[in-house]
Amino acid sequence: MTPPPIDYAQLAARIKTWGQELGFQGVGIADIDLHAAEQRLLDWLARGFHGRMEYMQRHGSKRSRPAELVPGTISVVSVRMDYLPQGMDSAQAALDDDTKAYVSRYALGRDYHKLVRQRLQKLATRIEETVGALGYRVFCDSAPVLEKPIAEKAGLGWIGKHTNLIDRSAGSFFFLGEIYTDLPLPADVPAASHCGRCRACLDICPTAAIVAPYVLDARRCISYLTIELADSIPEEFRPALGNRIYGCDDCQLACPWNRFAQLSVETDFLPRHQLESADLLALFAWDEATFLSRTEGSPIRRIGHERWLRNLAVALGNARPTPAVIAALQERMQHPSALVREHVQWALARHEAPPK
Length: 356
Fold this sequence. Notes:
The protein has 356 residues and is α+β, with helices and mostly antiparallel strands. 39% of the residues lie in helices and 11% in strands. The strands form four sheets. It has a four-stranded antiparallel β-sheet, with helices on both faces. A two-stranded parallel ribbon has the order 3-10. This is Epoxyqueuosine reductase.
């Protein structure tokens, strides 16, 4: 007996319901025509704005042509999951206290990659149980995928002037994930931009990394400098890092739409080891074993202990020159890493304190 034809519009509606039941706050569907985004990516790469992130050009057109990455793909299910663990007032309080370390809000809890991918896999399995065998692959910041242009096409928000996705009712503190599929699902209406004349994100950026509306020079971005860059942080940017030791949220904190940001319901995204308000000196005292233990299951672990100390040395160089700060820096001058010693020496010079 021939099975009845699939009602893809009805299936799309059910996928959205299932996704919300699995903990995604937004679910939309996009087609795979990303030619406009592809041109923006090529222009961005040509200007060298990706810095040392060679992976941004390593896969050629697979990033902007989903069917080249996963043959047979004709639709993308795009999802968002809110991650803000606390109100934005607590983030600003941490930024304003130069004895504290500021960690980007997305990295305070457990690594999001596994959680989001597991939920996407459950969603894909449910689709497969309903329609039978299908071709698909799930992603969460784990492959060459233009996740923000896809989410914009799926109606989950618009790409703001800071290049993050913004939802009118939820701000921008959320993760994105995708299911590439060979199902001919009806695409949603792309989101319209609501940034208007606002330039709050451009004006607040400590390093002027948003060089024009919708254009980010990653080489100047604090998230890039503290996470992606493996080498020495250029001295011209070190004072602007302030106490930011892993990432930066300033452009999001300044965005008026984030007054609607929703707190996460996921316990995995709650702060661990009091990283939301940890003292710089306490974190600087971690040896490598402590670092590896305290960052187990955290996205922070990817930078390693050496870069962790590098970033903290810069933050301590920007802190008030108390005897405890100077003593901690002087003690690290014996560190075996030349990278760490260089940044420690810079910090001591800021305080006009001699290395030991």
